[in-house]
Amino acid sequence: MANTTFELPPKGGFSFDLCRRNEMLAKKGVQPPSFRKTGTTIVGLVFKDGVILGADTRATEGPIVCDKNCEKIHYMAPNIYCCGAGTAADTEAVTDMVSSQLELHRYATGRESRVVTALTLLKSHLYSYQGHVSAALVLGGVDCTGPHLHTIYPHGSTDTLPFATMGSGSLAAMAMFESRYKEGMTREEGIKLVCGAICSGIFNDLGSGSNVDVCVITKGQREYLRNYALPNPRTYVSSKGYSFAKGHTEVLSTKITPLKEHVQIIEGDAMEE
Amino acid sequence: MYVANRASDKITQLTDNVYLCRSGSAADSQVVSDYVRYFLHQHIIQLGQPATVKVAANLIRQLSYNNKNMLQTGLIVGGWDKYEGGSIYSVPLGGTILQLPFAIGGSGSSYLYGFIDQAWKEGMNKEEAEALVVKCVSLAIARDGASGGVVRTVVINSEGVTRNFYSGDKLPLWHEELPLRNSLLEEASSEVEPMRA
Q1: CA distance linking residue B90 with residue B105, whole number of Å
Q2: Residue A34: is its pLDDT beyond 90?
Q3: Helices (DSSP H) in chain B: which residue ranges?
Q4: Chain B: residue nearest A174 by CA?
Q5: Annotation marks residue A40 as catalytic
Q6: Cα A43 from Cα A197, distance rounded (Å)
Q7: B189 touching A (Cβ < 8 Å)
Q8: Would you state the pLDDT for residue A31?
């Protein structure tokens, strides 16, 4: 019979060679560089007229808050928005990519994009990268078939739900939803509940914080309410101001390196016109 | 362990007359079912008549077996066609295909092998069979931590397909299971006095 192992030709998709190198380096003690994550609270719910998406605005790099007001609700189509949790670069890249694909698809079909189209494009991309694209998404929108809300996990599985939460603050937000959600809420009730769930994540989860972004999508209309609530204002500002004159910082050592000129000046004729 | 979805639908439709029960990795089982739905529809167009359960099960088996190193999903295919009537095929982890009168799968199935061996009998009617299935799933939910939430059933026969939904309060209670209590939120707003130090 044939050999038990044989080299398969590369089929495209993710090449795992560098993962082996990274494992080998990690064993030798070389730490991989840290990356910016949106340790996050993102939520979505279906209400009477459509869907409401909500997100906090903190982006972290390990223990440091690198962005106090980042945008986690990404545009996919005029009637579809997507909240992203996980690695910020991955969520941005994957939502931008699928947003472009949806636009091309709109030109090709001549119709408004459907939420299930975005869902299938996202889930197939994430599945083919076997979970290495660390993007956990809450996708919501209203199309000709009605309002839809889906969650997409990094490995490519999806769920369709009336209310959903993702990210490190998802447990805090889900507690709010499970106790207060009811079907057929009005716009005001829905926004209040989404805001409450995000605040619950902001105050109880260290990976989430700062402000609340809300996006309300209904048939034919969407409202992106950036910084809908600002529950963490900067309360103390020094009256003396924050200028630091010369002499505040102690100079420990000085090293001066003169930069040599590498440019050779050649005398010659002026350029002709 | 966080419950990501407490009411997920693990029975997916392949065609009008063939349905699939998924277990194992959610992503893998969703992708396999999407591919098989696509292949089955192409097959139906070529064939010119509804698909048989055997063909659907074999398509699943081919995907599962040829990608056995990468997939982690156990599937049970069930449906009705005019040649065999109702049939069930089990396609567990390695890609084996087994035609059986009854099949169980998933993490909670460990608790059901003995039960179903003694409880299943030949020639049950629709009501008995559905009651047995619901009893099995509720027994597994009682013992398996990874199972819970709601019970969904799909009945497929020559007349068509019926979907049923049994929420937690409709399921029978087994040994040492506590009866359902109303949400504490409702109680808190009516009778209970706040504790005083």
Answers
A1: 8
A2: no
A3: 26-47, 53-66, 113-119, 126-143, 184-190
A4: B4
A5: yes
A6: 8
A7: no
A8: 76
Per-residue pLDDT reduced to its tens digit, B79-100: 999 999 999 999 999 999 999 9
- The token duo for A69 is 């007001």
Predicted confidence band of residue A234 (pLDDT cuts 50, 70, 90): confident
Chain B residue with CA closest to A152: the answer is B27
- B150: tokens are 């709601």
DSSP A201: H
For residue A20, the model assigns a pLDDT of 85
Nearest Cα neighbor of A131 from B38, B31, B149 is B31
pLDDT in tens, A71-109: 999 999 999 999 999 999 999 999 999 999 999 999 999
Q: What is the pLDDT of residue B192?
A: 47
User: Which entry of A4, A5, A40, A249 is annotated as an active-site residue?
Assistant: A40
CA atoms within 13 A on the CB side of A179: 15
Strands A59-61 and A221-229: unpaired
At residue A130, the 3 state secondary structure works out as coil
Token pair, residue A235, equals 């309360």
Looking at residues A168-176, what average pLDDT do you find? Answer: 95
A127 and B27 within 8 Å at the Cβ level: the answer is yes
Average pLDDT over residues B87-116: 96
Strands A212-218 and A221-229 come out as antiparallel
Whose tokens are 């997409």? That residue is A152
Counting every residue written for chain B, the total comes to: 197
What b-and-e string marks burial along A93-109, b requiring 16 or more CB atoms within 10 Å of the CB? ebbeebbebbeebeeee
Cβ–Cβ of A157/B30 closer than 8 Å?
Answer: yes
